[in-house]
Specification:
This protein has about 190 residues and is mainly alpha-helical. It is about 65% helix and about 0% strand. The protein has a domain at about 70-175. The chain has helices spanning about 1-10, 15-20, 35-65, 70-85, 90-110, 120-125, 135-150, 160-175, 180-185.
Length: about 190
């Protein structure tokens, strides 16, 4: 029996480790229930700062002076110059030149040109004094020649295309607003 007592009285290695002294546990933090309020308050502050920054940047952008608008005759000349790149393709070239001139007439005279057929446009143009008689005649000829290429599948030569381009440029040159000389402006 001695052997049995010695087995019972001798602590095992695992029992000594579990029954030994341990360090003090740190205090358990008990939530107060107010953490959510701090998160909400932080979110509101961030939202207010973002709104203020957005408003500040918007005001700063609005205060920046805008460049002066490009006059219609300058824009038309640019579009006509860009159309020259399409000179080897008659239909796209004619469409670009015609659209440039129609857009110019709409911007310059507040005349709804791009949305109308040639016949509607010319009919309304006859009843206005926006252009003189020779300009109206040249415009009519120009638009009819463009329509032949766009709708009748006419294939003009390069010389005819250059003539159309020159005709459009001439009309823009003739109708662009002129600056009055100081002596004329005074009278």
């Amino acid at each position: 029996m001695a052997s049995t007592n010695s087995i019972l009285s001798l602590p095992s290695a695992s029992a000594a480790q579990t029954n030994g002294l341990r360090d003090i546990k740190p205090p358990v933090e008990i939530p107060s229930g107010w953490e959510w309020a701090w998160w909400v308050l932080g979110g509101i502050v961030l939202a207010i700062l973002a709104w203020w920054l957005w408003r500040y940047l918007r005001k700063r952008e609005a205060a920046r002076p805008l460049p002066p608008p490009v006059p219609p005759h300058v824009r038309a000349r640019r579009r006509l110059e860009q159309a020259l790149a399409l000179l080897s393709e008659p239909k796209p070239f004619v469409v670009a030149v015609s659209d440039a001139l129609r857009a110019y007439l709409e911007e310059r005279f507040s005349f709804r040109a791009p949305e109308r057929t040639t016949e509607e446009f010319l009919h309304e143009l006859r009843s206005t004094n926006l252009l003189d008689a020779s300009q109206k005649e040249r415009l009519s000829d120009f638009l009819q020649r463009c329509d032949l290429v766009k709708f009748a599948k006419y294939e003009p030569r390069e010389m005819e295309l250059r003539d159309l381009h020159a005709s459009a440029l001439r009309l823009v040159d003739e109708t662009e607003p002129r600056e009055l000389a100081p002596a004329q402006a005074a009278t």
